[in-house]
Amino acid sequence: MSSKHLMDTYRRAPLAFSRGEGIYLYTDDATPYMDLTSGIGVNNLGYSHPHIVRALTEQAGKLWHVSNQFRIPGQERLADRLCEASFADRAFFANSGAEAVECALKLARRYFDVSGQPDRWRTIVFDGAFHGRTFASIMAGDGEQYREGYAPHMDGFDRAQFGNLDSVRALIRENTAAIMVEPVQGEGGVRAASAEFLAGLRQLADEYGLLLILDEVQSGNGRTGKLYCHEWSGITPDIMATAKGLGAGFPMAVCLATEAVSQGFGVGNHGTTFGGNPLAMAVGNAVLDVLTEPGFLDSVQDIAVYLRKGLTDLVDRHPALIRAPLRGSGLMIGLPAIAPNTEIVSAFRQQGVLALTARDNIVRLLPPLVITRDQVDAALHAMDAALAGLAA
Ligand SMILES: *Cc1c(COP(=O)(O)O)cnc(C)c1O
């Protein structure tokens, strides 16, 4: 069945899919599963979204890849549109979340280097953080399991407590360059930063001349009902990394920054072979078309309220297995479990609903943003049956 030639880095469920449509995935024998994970926050528009498929197939017939030695009109267009829609003035396209985070960290160092403060190089990060799997991002993230066996460890990160401004202030030194935070921690337990905390970080950054880096790899691209989650708080970062939902399933990422900070990068200071190629950019532009359609994000907010209400009712029905309050923001949802979250996730799967786990024994739901009320009802019904089965 499974191949002995794959490296053993994942514990995989004994399931494979051959087709996807909307929020449904289908196995070879056409058994449907409701995907409330969106492929870990990636397939935000569900599967086989016609506008995205059309953009990809049209571009595939014309030109997949040219290098960044040349102008790439789709890349210029997407950069213009992302900057128009956000705090940012400049964009660097990459291929994965970790690469966008890496770009953000490198840009912060370069910015201080070119502005005559090369001694500023450390970044304040948080407990519960996850920023990816590169050497730098496993150090920025919390979680010994990601670092085990990778000594010697890269230096340059100081860890504060998520939600605790005093703990951040206490870590600021003359060599501090930046603060990096997820507006909603995903892997770390779907913990949402309060608006006050984010505003406090912005204020500390301004007070001490630091850069504020937001990791919106998971929380961005409409996931919380705004294009970027930080819009809920009213603050803006200096640098932001985002990825997962950006290509709705096509691997792509972006590091966005203000004009002043972007001066840190000149020709040759950073680069990528694949990042921003025509195929990725065609898909990225098509995804943005949908996310910025009038009313689209409002409908995400509405369905999020509806799903959260249903999940709260589910907690009332199964108080021995799951509990309130729900965590997260919008359609980035953490359901605190009492029974082991892995057991709940596999019970859901047996009822045809795919869910994820997160730290703190959380069941994590990242449904496609296009999920309908009827589909929410069907998912809640299946989850209710799964929990009833577990209780029995
Ligand atoms: C998933 C994730 C990353 C890493 O993204 P990859 O594409 O797996 O490299 C970084 N930061 C956050 C917040 C994430 O959720």
From TrEMBL:
Residue sites binding N(2)-acetyl-L-ornithine per the record: R133, T272
Location(s), subcellular: Cytoplasm
MF GO annotations: diaminobutyrate-2-oxoglutarate transaminase activity; identical protein binding; N2-acetyl-L-ornithine:2-oxoglutarate 5-aminotransferase activity; pyridoxal phosphate binding
A GO CC term attached to the entry: cytoplasm
Residues reported in the UniProt entry to bind pyridoxal 5'-phosphate: G97, A98, F130, D215, E216, V217, Q218, T273
One of the GO biological process terms: L-arginine biosynthetic process
Recorded superkingdom: Bacteria
InterPro entries: AcOrn/SuccOrn_fam, Aminotrans_3, Aminotrans_3_PPA_site, Class-III_PLP-dep_AT, PyrdxlP-dep_Trfase, PyrdxlP-dep_Trfase_major, PyrdxlP-dep_Trfase_small
SUPFAM superfamilies xref list: PLP-dependent transferases
Reactions this protein catalyses: N(2)-acetyl-L-ornithine + 2-oxoglutarate = N-acetyl-L-glutamate 5-semialdehyde + L-glutamate
EC numbers on record: 2.6.1.11
Pathway(s): Amino-acid biosynthesis; L-arginine biosynthesis; N(2)-acetyl-L-ornithine from L-glutamate: step 4/4; Amine and polyamine biosynthesis; ectoine biosynthesis; L-ectoine from L-aspartate 4-semialdehyde: step 1/3
Known cofactor(s): pyridoxal 5'-phosphate
Quaternary structure and partners: Homodimer.
Other facts noted in the record for this chain: May also have succinyldiaminopimelate aminotransferase activity, thus carrying out the corresponding step in lysine biosynthesis.
HAMAP family documented for this protein: ArgD_aminotrans_3
Protein name, entry field: Acetylornithine aminotransferase
Organism, scientific name: Pollutimonas thiosulfatoxidans
